[in-house]
């Protein structure tokens, strides 16, 4: 049902604009009441951004499942590359990215959710046995990985979704590989 509501909302946002589309409009297009809408999405922004919360939890789980002693940067690269591969398979992601960039309320909520995700990822890195990281370094490495993905998203969007997203991920992680990470234990 969440996917159907999201699809209806994205269609309305494309036709009318984000700010001009109300929750009532979305609920009506999805064949539900406004009350039902709020059972699925606490706020209108979450129709576009709802997956970010779940994604952060899953990324943290995948980091925890990586081999003990694996280089922190390699862990982030492998896990985030897998997520970028999933994103690349979804054409609606490009429309969502453009909508976020064009809508101040969405951009602000997206940044809040990304910060929450970054905290989850940093915690997952610190919880790994033998990581050799202090909290500052773990946060900085997570921020660098986020910057890599930001660059990938911009390049991919500028290429109208036609760029090789995985090649961009690999290039970004190679360019930003921190030279000062402690060796894994």
UniProtKB/TrEMBL annotation:
Source species, domain of life: Bacteria
Domain HTH tetR-type: 1-59
DNA-binding residues (ranges): 22-41
Keyword Translocase: no
Any GO molecular function: transcription cis-regulatory region binding
SUPFAM superfamilies the UniProt entry points to: Homeodomain-like
Key words of the record: DNA-binding, Transcription, Transcription regulation
InterPro entries named among the record's database cross-references: Homeodomain-like_sf, HTH-type_TetR-like_transc_reg, HTH_TetR, MftR_C
Name of the protein described by the UniProt record: TetR family transcriptional regulator
Biological source species: Spongiactinospora rosea
């Amino acid at each position: 049902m969440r996917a159907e509501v999201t699809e209806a909302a994205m269609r309305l946002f494309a036709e009318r604009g984000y700010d001009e589309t109300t929750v009532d409009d979305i609920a009506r297009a999805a064949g539900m009441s406004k009350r039902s809408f709020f059972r699925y999405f606490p706020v209108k922004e979450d129709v576009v951004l709802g997956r970010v919360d779940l994604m952060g939890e899953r990324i943290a789980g995948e980091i925890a499942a990586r081999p003990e002693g694996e280089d922190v940067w390699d862990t982030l690269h492998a896990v985030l590359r897998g997520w970028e591969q999933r994103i690349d398979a979804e054409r609606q992601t490009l429309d969502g990215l453009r909508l976020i960039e064009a809508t101040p309320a969405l951009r602000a909520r997206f940044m809040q959710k990304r910060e929450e995700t970054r905290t989850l990822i940093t915690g997952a890195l610190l919880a790994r046995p033998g990581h050799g990281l202090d909290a500052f370094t773990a946060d900085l490495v997570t921020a660098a990985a986020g910057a890599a993905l930001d660059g990938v998203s911009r390049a991919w969007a500028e290429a109208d979704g036609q760029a090789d997203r995985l090649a961009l991920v690999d290039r970004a992680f190679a360019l930003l590989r921190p030279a000062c990470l402690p060796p894994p234990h």
